[in-house]
UniProtKB/TrEMBL annotation:
The chain crosses the membrane at residues 42-65, 72-95, 101-122, 134-157, 163-181, 201-224, 236-255, 267-285, 291-310, 322-346, 352-372. Keywords: Membrane, Transmembrane, Transmembrane helix. It comes from the Bacteria. This is MFS transporter. It is a multi-pass membrane protein. SUPFAM superfamilies: MFS general substrate transporter (SSF103473). GO terms for molecular function: transmembrane transporter activity.
Length: 387
């Protein structure tokens, strides 16, 4: 029991540090956009580089985890994640910013595949679903990172100073956590290989695609929405992002209990409805209070789509955990790839409010996908609670 607890705490720290890195970047997105005087479409195109890096790195990340183990892959990934964050902070030109975003995407997904493989191993030792709680720590870190970002902006702290402080905390906690992570027990592959995926993994990937598209748009554009549509003051630009991340964190801490009680299929159906209704509320009633409420609903909706999907990935028998996670994440990360530029192009063509309406339709498609495939059980109920 003591070993399991140490593994859970150590892994939770890594999830938190990963979320802190990402939210630190997201909190300074409006600042970076203004610094380089990007238009919406130009910035949307630039944001495409991060998920592109993530997508390109996913097959490699799956092989690295499978070959060298998730324990050390996680440490290397998150250290690289924090270093690339600093590179973003010191970028003097667009080319530097683009390369840094590519590295940011690559390292973020090595981190993601590694820590989720670790989470599946720890979850197996507990005999019940605890995946969402790890993702809850990621989202809680997002809320904390957004708060720190808002404070840094209000105090006039330079981006590079802000990001250097984050990198320092990451290095410290990674080295404290590394000895307590779960040792890998899977057979390691010696070469990068590609296998024909089974239909179950493809279905999970499609659900992940919709969930990640919604997440990516909220993470990258929530601050811009509050600045350009709601005309929020500088200190309140990150309020929507904070509301979204706080709600997502809270939802992930309670979703394991609801999934065990009501089943994953029903949970994901409700999640799609929450995403759609929250975005439509923010679009139809573009006031500060209604937008905050809408973003809270979206956060609750996106909270457990990905954790429950990853839990099902761990049950597959055709691929190793690292490769199966990489496959589903590759399909899902097309959502991150398409989302940010989609928002920018539609915003330039029509408006940012219309862009968010399109994302609302993607949200409701999550519910429709689960309903249409209910007889095939695309998402099985979560593991029963161990008694």
């Amino acid at each position: 029991m003591q070993t399991k607890l140490k593994q859970r705490i150590a892994l939770g720290v890594l999830f938190f540090q990963s979320g802190l890195c990402f939210s630190s970047w997201a909190s300074r997105i409006p600042d970076i956009k203004n610094s380089f005087l990007f238009s919406d479409s130009e910035f949307g195109t630039l944001l495409l580089i991060r998920p592109l890096g993530s997508l390109l790195g996913l097959p490699l990340a799956g092989w690295v985890v499978d070959r060298y183990g998730s324990k050390y892959s996680a440490a290397i990934g998150i250290l690289g994640f924090s270093v690339s964050l600093v590179l973003l902070g010191i970028a003097p030109a667009v080319a530097w910013l683009a390369v840094s975003l590519l590295l940011f995407g690559l390292s973020s997904n090595l981190t993601s595949i590694s820590i989720n493989a670790q989470a599946l191993a720890v979850q197996k030792s507990y005999g019940r679903t605890i995946m969402s709680s790890f993702h809850g720590l990621w989202s809680l870190a997002g809320f904390c990172g957004a708060s720190v970002g808002a404070a840094a902006i209000s105090l006039g702290l330079e981006r590079v100073t802000h990001f250097l402080l984050i990198m320092g905390t990451v290095f410290l906690f990674v080295f404290l956590s590394l000895p307590h992570l779960n040792p890998d027990q899977e057979t390691k592959s010696k070469r990068l290989s590609f296998a024909k995926p089974d239909p179950q993994l493809l279905r999970l990937g499609l659900i992940a695609f919709c969930g990640m598209l919604c997440e990516g748009c909220m993470l990258d554009w929530s601050g811009v929405y509050f600045k350009q549509v709601l005309h929020a003051e500088q200190g309140w630009v990150t309020a929507g992002f904070m509301a979204y991340m706080g709600s997502m964190a809270a939802g992930r801490f309670v979703s394991d209990r609801f999934a065990n009680r009501y089943g994953s299929t029903r949970m994901i159906q409700v999640n799609g409805l929450l995403i759609c209704s929250g975005l439509l509320l923010a679009v139809i009633v573009p006031s500060f209070p209604m937008a905050i409420l809408g973003f809270i609903l979206v956060g609750a909706g996106t909270s457990s789509v990905i954790p429950l999907t990853y839990t099902q990935v761990g049950k597959n028998q055709t691929l190793s955990t690292g490769l199966a996670l990489a496959l589903v994440s590759t399909i899902g990360y097309f959502g991150f790839l398409l989302g940010p530029p989609l928002i920018g192009f539609i915003a330039d063509w029509l408006s940012l409010r219309v862009s968010f309406t399109v994302v609302a339709l993607v949200g409701i498609s999550i519910t429709l996908l689960v309903l249409l495939r209910a007889q095939q059980n695309p998402v099985k109920p979560a593991l029963p609670t161990q008694r």
